[in-house]
Amino acid sequence: MSHEQAFAEHAPAPDDPVSPRDQAAAARASDARLIAGAQVVLVALSFYVAVESLGLGLWTSFGPGPGFFPFVLAIALGLLALAWAAQTRRVRAGEDGAAERTDVGHAAAVLGSLVVLAAAMDLAGYQISVFAFLMFHLKWRAGRSWALSLVLSLAGSVGVYHGFDQGLMVQLPPSAIPLLAGWGL
Fold it and tell me: Which residues have C-beta within 8 Å of that of residue 108, sequence separation ≥ 6?
């Protein structure tokens, strides 16, 4: 048997469809490269923004400087991208490629509640709006206990408000309702 005959016998015919298993493996490999690339880009972007924000100055005599918030957000972005990379690696090691389920209802609830939060912020103020937003997501969407939901919602609304107001000397929106504004909300 000649070399060409042996190759012709073992080569797949051009009309043979690729098996679904091979297609799934190729899709997973392509997705893995895309995800790894996105993670590298996010880490590089966060490093660049952090370095550039240092040049703007982190603090002035009046409070946070123009580079403070970009620096903090760049560090947060970098840490989240690294956590995403670690999580992706852990999932790949533990699973044989189970596809992630996209929950459109959850995404719609988050986006809708963010729109409501933005609309309510001017009238109700930061503390009340963010408290309601956090309670909605913690208690009703995530099903957490009342105690945990209340503690986290108070910390995320009242605690953050006073941290910005007194610690960073940055005022977040107070309530436009005179009675609530008189109570410091």
Answer: none
Q: Walk along the chain (185 residues) and give the pLDDT tens digit of each residue.
A: 555 665 556 555 555 566 767 776 677 777 888 888 999 999 999 999 999 999 999 988 888 889 999 999 999 999 999 999 999 888 877 765 455 555 778 888 889 999 999 999 888 888 999 999 999 999 988 889 999 999 999 999 988 988 888 888 888 888 888 887 778 77
32: tokens are: 């893995």
Q: Under a CB-based contact definition with an 8 Å cutoff, are residues 142 and 109 in contact? A: no
Q: Which of 78, 81, 55, 79 is nearest to 68 (CA)?
A: 55
Distance of CA 160 to the CA centre of its chain: 19
* Residue 159: Cβ-neighbour burial (10 angstroms; 0-12, 13-18, 19+): middle
CB 57 within 8 A of CB 66: yes
pTM over 0.90: no
How far is C-alpha 81 from the geometric centre of its chain's CA atoms?
9
76 phi/psi in degrees, rounded to 5:
-60, -45
